[in-house]
Design a protein that fits this description.
about 190 residues; alpha+beta; 6 helices; about 40% helix
C-alpha cells in the first residue's frame, strides 16, 4: 500500500494520478490521499463503444484517432515511470482513466492508476524485490515472461500489455480468449 503511494508520488507526469499524501493513522490504518478523477475508465469507454457497435453498422473497434491519442498518452506516462525503474505489471483498460483536460488538444487525458503490484528496482527511494516464480497481473494482458515468472519483471511487460490493449481497442476484442486462465496463458506463451 505504502509502496504504491511512494511509487506514484516519485514520478511527476500528467498521465499519472497525483498522490498528495500517504501515511498511517495512530490506530494503524493506512491511507492515500489522491486527486479526485472525474471521468471514466478506458474499459467503460470501450464497452460503451462495443455495445453501440452491436446495434449499428459501426466497427466493433474504437475509432483509430481516439485509440492512437489514448495509447500515445499512456505510452508517455509509462516512459516516465520506466525511466525511474518502475514497472506497473498490471496495465489494463480498468487501470486507465479518461478525464477532462483542457491542456490537451482533444480536451481529454488518459491517466494510469493502480500501481499496487508495481515493481520498483533500483529507482530513487529504495528497492522492492520481486520474487522470481510468482506470476502477478491480469491474464488477458500478461506478457509471456510475466506468466512464466522466470525472471524479474522489466518494462517490456508493460509495453506488451499496452500492445494487447491497443489490439483490443482497435479490433473490438482481446487477441487471446479462453474460458480458463490456463488457456489464455497457453495462447500468450505459444
Amino acid at each position: 500500500f505504502v509502496d504504491e503511494a511512494r511509487l506514484v508520488s516519485m514520478v511527476g507526469h500528467p498521465g499519472l494520478v497525483k498522490v498528495y499524501d500517504y501515511t498511517k493513522t495512530d490506530q494503524g490504518t493506512l491511507y492515500i490521499v489522491m486527486e479526485f478523477l472525474e471521468g471514466e475508465s478506458l474499459w467503460h469507454r470501450f464497452e460503451r463503444w462495443r455495445n453501440k457497435a452491436k446495434t449499428s453498422d459501426a466497427s466493433p473497434g474504437m475509432p483509430v484517432p481516439e485509440v492512437l491519442q489514448i495509447v500515445r498518452q499512456v505510452a508517455s506516462a509509462l516512459a516516465a515511470v520506466h525511466a525511474r525503474g518502475i514497472v506497473h505489471r498490471d496495465l489494463k483498460p480498468d487501470n486507465i482513466m479518461l478525464v477532462k483536460d483542457p491542456d490537451t488538444p482533444s480536451g481529454e487525458r488518459a491517466k494510469i492508476l493502480d500501481f499496487g503490484i508495481a515493481k520498483l528496482d533500483g529507482a530513487e527511494g529504495g528497492t522492492r524485490n520481486t520474487t522470481t516464480g510468482v506470476s502477478l497481473g491480469t491474464p488477458t494482458y500478461m506478457a509471456p515472461e510475466q506468466i512464466e515468472a522466470s525472471t524479474a519483471p522489466t518494462e517490456r511487460i508493460d509495453v506488451y500489455a499496452l500492445g494487447v490493449i491497443t489490439y483490443e481497442l482497435l479490433s473490438g476484442g482481446a487477441p487471446f480468449v479462453s474460458e480458463t486462465t490456463g488457456g489464455i496463458f497457453r495462447q500468450h506463451l505459444i
